[in-house]
Write a structure and sequence with these properties.
The protein is α+β, with helices and mostly antiparallel strands and 203 residues long. It has one domain (5-198): Nuclear Transport Factor 2, Chain: A (Roll), CATH 3.10.450.50. It is built from 4 helices and 10 strands. The radius of gyration is 18 Å and the shape is globular. 24% of the residues are buried.
Amino acid sequence: MESRDHFKNGADPKSLRSRALKLNSMKKHFLISILVMITTTIVVISCTSSNKPAGNKLTNSDKTYTDVEMGNMENLKKAYALFSSHDTAMFDYFADSIIEQGNPPTIGKKALKEFNKAFWVGFTDIRVDLDTNRIFAAGDYTFASAYVRGTNDGEFPPMGLSKTGKKIDVDFVEIIKWEGGKAILSIPLMNEQKMMQQLGMIK
């Protein structure tokens, strides 16, 4: 999940809406570029992997992945399942130096721990529902499409929320770079405007 310091208390709704629209536009263009890069990489890897010994690759559905890629996808699923059950074991999948891209970026496991724990307090039923048909891997990277769902029934200082009772059901994608079974880079792209509308922050 992404830390969003621009959602602090006292923010003007009009400026929030303007920022959300601008961010969504920028992120859409960025996402398209990333998707093209990942698709190209998957195609190249799929073509070259046919020359590898059979023992070095596993088959998942109609795609062929290396053992490392399959392991990264499994770690991704486990990490999201732990997030949904509010289990701190999720943080075992974070490298100490992990960076989560955002505005501004969140640097280090400790900072991400604090934000995710705040989410569990502010949204006690928060969960992530993965689209299992849209999880891919290419080299050290994974790509996943999912929904974050929950109810703001607690205090959530990062967005200035306090028990609004409002529900969120927002789609997002996340690109993660893995090293040694741990996430070292996360690029989450969320429909922030939709989330802010659902929370009553903007119309």
